[in-house]
């Protein structure tokens, strides 16, 4: 197969991003050098400088890729709270299987990564959760006492703690199970009973959605129909 110069450049760029993700995840931001990344990619520092300005540039791209990979596997659901569930389950599965997402989390929590906006990922996820909760409230899916912003931030903060615990204890292998436990405890406090009864919080939900997106199946919803909502 003949590759054009543009194709080869794109492949080299991708290889460098993936190599940087592996090294950042293994060594952390401060200890990682461009020479380390070049060695992991099987190329030279010159190739890195052809595609990227510096180490900060690579780190920012990896952080941005985290948000893009989540969006690819998520689809609108007839019950809006299912979308909140899905965001957590897909992220958990990505952490188990995707080096780019692992590296992005390592960078986000790395206090020595002072050259990048580590809070941006947290703010973006909080805002995405808040948008889902606002739609859920409009549709009568939430209990009347729910504080939307506090709930959006609680989900992000609790997930961050769970993923760090899971990384230390099982290298993320048990993270989907831990997120299911989180959801099973959180959702009864915010969802009205008819909605709670149809939410799919199975630990395999994230893997199913990712597989469906890869196969082009559209990530069909496990919620067959929209339940009647009732305020408590």
Automatic annotation (TrEMBL):
<feature type="domain" description="HTH tetR-type">
    <location>
        <begin position="10"/>
        <end position="70"/>
    </location>
</feature>
<dbReference type="InterPro" id="IPR001647">
    <property type="entry name" value="HTH_TetR"/>
</dbReference>
<feature type="DNA-binding region" description="H-T-H motif">
    <location>
        <begin position="33"/>
        <end position="52"/>
    </location>
</feature>
<dbReference type="Pfam" id="PF00440">
    <property type="entry name" value="TetR_N"/>
</dbReference>
<keyword id="KW-0805">Transcription regulation</keyword>
<dbReference type="InterPro" id="IPR047923">
    <property type="entry name" value="ArpA-like"/>
</dbReference>
<dbReference type="InterPro" id="IPR009057">
    <property type="entry name" value="Homeodomain-like_sf"/>
</dbReference>
<keyword id="KW-0238">DNA-binding</keyword>
<dbReference type="InterPro" id="IPR050109">
    <property type="entry name" value="HTH-type_TetR-like_transc_reg"/>
</dbReference>
<keyword id="KW-0804">Transcription</keyword>
<protein>
    <submittedName>
        <fullName>ScbR family autoregulator-binding transcription factor</fullName>
    </submittedName>
</protein>
<dbReference type="InterPro" id="IPR036271">
    <property type="entry name" value="Tet_transcr_reg_TetR-rel_C_sf"/>
</dbReference>
